[in-house]
Design brief:
Elements lengths: L2 E2 L6 E2 L14 H18 L1 H17 L3 H8 L1 H17 L20 E8 L5 E10 L12
Antiparallel strand pairs: 1-2, 3-4
Length: 146
C-alpha cells in the first residue's frame, strides 16, 4: 500500500510498524515532520513550551556573543536582515516605531483596545504583539478641593 508524503507529495511505502506514517524517509521530509511535531508540542503542551523556553534562555545566556559574531562572519546575512527589517518598517501603516523616548505632553489614557509591542533596547519594536483592553475605572478630579 502506497501513501503520499505530507511534505514532498511523493508516494512511498510506509513502514508496517508505523501505521499512521505520513512522511517519507527523505531527510528534508523528516526535518519537516520533526518541525511540525515541535510546533504542535509548543502550541499544546505548556510544560514542553516552558522547558523549551527555559533551555533557549540558558543557551542565550551562556553564548551572549553568538549573534554578534555570526553577523561579523556572515556580512551578507547581516545586510539581508537589515534590508528585510527596513522593508518591514516601511510596510507598517504607522511608520513611526515605538520608542521609550516618545513623550506625549497632554496625553490622557482612555478606555479602549490597544496594541502592545515589546520594544528592544535598540528602539525597534518586536513583530510579536498583543491586543489588550484597558478600562479606566477611576479618574482624579479637582472637585475634592471644593
Amino acid at each position: 500500500m502506497s501513501k503520499k508524503c505530507k511534505a514532498c507529495g511523493c508516494h512511498f511505502t510506509p513502514d508496517p510498524r508505523v501505521p499512521k506514517q505520513q512522511f517519507c524517509s527523505k531527510p528534508e521530509c523528516q526535518l519537516q515532520r520533526r518541525k511540525a511535531w515541535q510546533q504542535d508540542k509548543r502550541r499544546h503542551d505548556p510544560h514542553y513550551r516552558d522547558n523549551d523556553s527555559r533551555q533557549i534562555r540558558e543557551w542565550i545566556t551562556s553564548h551572549p556573543d553568538y549573534w554578534k559574531l555570526y553577523r561579523q562572519k556572515n556580512p551578507d546575512y547581516a545586510k539581508r536582515n537589515r534590508d528585510l527589517q527596513q522593508a518591514r518598517n516601511k510596510k507598517q501603516k504607522n511608520a513611526d516605531l515605538a520608542s521609550h523616548e516618545v513623550v506625549l505632553p497632554d496625553f490622557h489614557l482612555v478606555s479602549g483596545r490597544y496594541v502592545l509591542r515589546l520594544v528592544g533596547p535598540d528602539g525597534v519594536a518586536n513583530e510579536d504583539a498583543w491586543i489588550v483592553e484597558i478600562t479606566l475605572i477611576s479618574v482624579c478630579c479637582d472637585n475634592a478641593a471644593t
